[in-house]
Amino acid sequence: MHLEEGSIPVGYKRYIGGKITLIVAGFFILAALIVVSISIGSARMPLREVLQTLFLRHVSEQLDSIVFNIRLPQTLTAIVAGAGLSIAGAVMQSVLENPLASPFTLGISHAAAFGAALSVMAMGSRFSLASGTYALNALRAGMTAGTAFLTSMIATLIVILISNLRRGSPEVMALAGVALGSLFTAGTMFLQYFADDVELAAMVFWTFGDVGRANWSELGIISAVTGGVILFFLFNAWNYNAIDAGDETALGLGVSVRYVRFFGMFFASLVTAVTIAFVGVIGFVGLICPHMVRRLIGDDNRFLLPGSCVMGSILLLAADTTARMIMAPRVLPVAILTSFVGAPVFLYLIIKGNRR
Length: 356
Known about the structure:
Elements: H1 10-39, H2 47-54, H3 61-95, H4 108-122, E1 127-130, E2 133-136, H5 138-165, H6 170-194, H7 197-207, H8 216-235, H9 237-244, H10 247-252, H11 257-279, H12 285-297, H13 301-325, H14 334-352
Antiparallel strand pairs: 1-2
């Protein structure tokens, strides 16, 4: 970019304006999807009545109960979880300089699944059968979520410690994550082999990521962590741009590559661990959303990161809404749909390659 008499060129303003317009358009799509998502489910509700209820205009007690106790927390959880997983994937791909990096492919999700399985086996954290569906006991659910969080953070710290032995090399981080993912998967299979029928059902059920599990208090925890981490990432967007240009270039610009990489991985893992601990394993959102946004608005992290948040929210909310529709009145766990969508895209990226 060249300044023309001290002012920003019109062409550059249009270039930036186009990116901002796409992100704003994403917000409008997300807003419309929120209303549609709340109206769809085992009890169908007219869009007009949903809007009236959301704006605190009383329509009926039944509508208030469905919207504020069931649909709204589920919808908001999908939005927050999608944004957190997606921006975590975008930052991991940047600091590791690897287009296939994501919380799922680096083993953090597998570590959380192992922690949940360990909780079921060692702590008696089981699921109870109620009304034909598995429901969580609150205390035991908290133990399961806490153990899943701890194991995923342990996996993250091991990856970071191993990488420090090689001065924060992105290749070492990625390979260590893949190796730990395989190790935790083997550990989960070992526990499942010795589990009884009830324990095995609980372990398998937990791995089916579902945003409908979170209540208002759990949504508050996820939102607080995700919001803080997103602000941290946006504040460091220029540093990630510098690393994208190469470590030597970033060092020449005064960026502490090692610390930016360390804290980028740590906070990406933190938001992933907190999200997975409460909603279960949801794969591929952190992998495919940044690539979709990158193709629309490019690699500039000032726009890629907020764009990934919006895309992640749209994708996960759309998948959750679809999961409620395709086999109604049965509700599929949203992780099944994200895996159906994500696996072909993952294979496409491996075969065709992808620019970052």
